[in-house]
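Tokens for chain A. Residues wanted.
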């Protein structure tokens, strides 16, 4: 990390009517498994949609851990993002605020056992438009504000694939740089806006996923499945630090174990992740 001191299984598809633009190991397995080879195929009960694997412990139950409550908060820095955490067992997703019936319902906790969270993209009275953790990447829908609790975070991440960098911002200020490995030409890390959906703790902290693994809301665009699980994108550590700075994964984003540990203690679920060229 560099401190900056100057300022087979089908991927989930969107319900009919929704616009297109996800704390347990099974989930992580699906995500990383897709992007990385055997090393990224996480096991346990955490990041892969509805999958069950071995190697990951259950999701760490943290919602907006470092996020601030949106109610009565002090003046926020610029570039603050709103995160929603479900307060009901199932969150109804509507195509529009005018829709009479929901197009789908997303469970809470999610498939990995983590709190169901969403990243807000727009707001209307009584409604939130959010990114959805489903295929295709960038899908959006509307949810009612009586089914969620809002909080904010000034943090966001940017993955610059060509530079093999992960950049951490607080507001508009770049505060840290990390060297990462990304996907190969055949199994690229897909570009777009995503968010952190769960935080997993692998059973073997010195294994291919390191001590921590975040699941993202996006999926591989080149793989329909990975070892029978949904190909979810993961952000995790590695037991092969020599691969950092290279295009070597199945789509997941690898960091050093020290860097992922630092981020795991700082970032709330729902933190935005922009993946660019």
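Reply:
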């Amino acid at each position: 990390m560099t401190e900056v001191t100057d300022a087979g299984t089908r991927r989930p598809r969107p319900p009919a009517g929704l616009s297109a633009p996800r704390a347990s190991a099974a989930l992580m397995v699906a995500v990383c498994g897709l992007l990385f080879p055997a090393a990224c195929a996480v096991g346990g009960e955490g990041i892969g949609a509805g999958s069950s694997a071995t190697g990951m412990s259950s999701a760490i139950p943290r919602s907006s851990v470092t996020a601030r409550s949106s109610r009565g908060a002090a003046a926020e820095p610029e570039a603050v993002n709103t995160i929603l955490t479900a307060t009901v067992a199932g969150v109804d997703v509507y195509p529009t605020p005018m829709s009479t019936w929901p197009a789908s319902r997303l469970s809470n906790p999610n498939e990995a056992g983590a709190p169901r969270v969403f990243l807000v993209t727009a707001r209307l009275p009584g409604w939130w438009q959010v990114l959805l953790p489903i295929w295709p990447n960038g899908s959006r829908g509307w949810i009612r504000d009586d089914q969620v609790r809002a909080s904010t975070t000034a943090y966001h991440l940017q993955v610059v694939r060509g530079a093999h960098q992960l950049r951490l911002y607080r507001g508009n200020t770049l505060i840290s740089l990390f060297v990462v490995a990304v996907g190969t030409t055949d199994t690229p890390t897909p570009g777009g806006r995503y968010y952190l959906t769960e935080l997993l703790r692998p059973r073997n902290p010195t294994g291919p996923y390191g001590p921590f693994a975040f699941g993202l809301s996006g999926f591989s665009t080149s793989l329909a499945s990975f070892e029978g699980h949904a190909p979810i994108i993961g952000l995790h550590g590695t037991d092969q630090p020599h691969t950092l700075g290279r295009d070597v994964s199945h789509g997941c984003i690898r960091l050093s174990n020290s860097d992922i540990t630092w981020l795991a203690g700082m970032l709330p679920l729902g933190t935005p992740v922009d993946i660019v060229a």
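The chain has two domains: 2-14+25-61+154-276, 77-153. Residues 2-14+25-61+154-276 form a domain with the L,D-transpeptidase catalytic domain-like fold (CATH 2.40.440.10).
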